[in-house]
């Protein structure tokens, strides 16, 4: 059976001359409007190149898009409750902590700040739930004929360090709107949903700043030593500065935090003599970003302080794959959400997620994956992309780890088979015009939630992003050069 397909927003292929002309215009538009990244191969702070983008918006069923938007506040609250449930996190992560040093280091910091007494009870969650359409129906042997060419959508993961694409998500709509007008299809722009991700995410930081309630405080963006995704990061700063000129923002690496900050007797984090209201992490989610004890000491200093963290250490732990797998287990959602239609709606978005712990269910999962490795993805406790294993690599890794406790640091997830769509991907340095390719997309829905363990002050969905990749590519990270910026073109159901 051939893979299901969705129709492109306009008939393809485009005529050669028209395609070349519109791509050259679009590339210039991209550079002039912040659709860019720094070149990893020829890095310089003085220039950017276009970020990869899909020429035309990709189709997505309107009913499924609206369902994802409406469900995001529910997922926000679920993650908030998980992050504040000490017993659940401790029980869920106990096996992974024995073999995953990075997660164990995060967990050790969490234990220390709890033992000392949490100074700042307010947390700022800026989440992104990533989903894909599923073309296979779980209730039939073959594709679901009633809902061809898709059956439903399933959650790939939920990220707690996730405002990447806060700028690039909305600007993708703008560039594709420009392209549609150039092609004489401006009437179709109304099918592309408005996207307020940048302003929505930044409003979360501003609201947290105001809750901190100390005059002359500052916001710190924690960044990598070298920032390639500079447009996406800087536009967050620009947006906050435009909305609130009184808020001063500093960009610091973890190492600079260690060298340049202190904590006073009020437990305020101090930078250049001023208290820090919010520490917002754009780095710190993978082991390579902690090359020495200095970075870990900086993270501990921040967690001990009164600054509002995004994410806090418990939010980062709640975003691990092991937690996501456990939430899909029978009866676990009910612990946090009770019973009812809303809980059932959340359970329906989970694809197959399996523990690899050394117990009966873990052994069954290993056997299942070894028998049909192409059906699964092997995921470690990481955010940021590029860490997952697919196909033959799943089999090879499980054979190597079968009798090692290392396997407890991973979960097994059933692969989602999204419908294909035809399209053109524009990349820096690539020949023009690009070939017409089969593509698949992943939709991310942004949410902001602010609160304490006892009280939620704010909870909302704030925008979306769409990443699209070649159908035969496993990973889809845009910064890694594997995916491309896109935006949804809503199809009537």
Helix-strand blueprint:
Layout: H1 16-32, E1 36-37, E2 49-50, E3 53-54, E4 58-61, H2 62-83, H3 86-97, H4 101-116, E5 123-134, E6 152-159, H5 168-182, H6 197-212, E7 218-222, H7 230-243, E8 248-252, H8 254-260, E9 261-263, E10 269-271, E11 274-281, H9 293-304, E12 308-310, H10 313-318, H11 321-327, H12 332-337, H13 341-348, E13 353-355, H14 360-371, E14 376-380, E15 389-390, H15 392-401, E16 410-414, E17 421-423, E18 425-426, E19 437-451, E20 456-470, E21 483-486, E22 488-491
Parallel strand pairs: 4-22, 7-8, 7-11, 11-12
Antiparallel strand pairs: 1-2, 3-18, 5-6, 5-19, 9-10, 10-11, 13-16, 14-15, 14-16, 17-19, 19-20, 20-21
Helix pairs in contact: 1-5, 4-9, 6-7, 8-9
The quaternary structure here is: single chain
Measure the end-to-end span.
Answer: 24 Å
Sheet-strand content, in percent, reads 15-25%
Low-confidence stretches: none
Number of helices: 15
Q: What is the arithmetic mean of pLDDT? A: 92
| Structural class label | alpha+beta
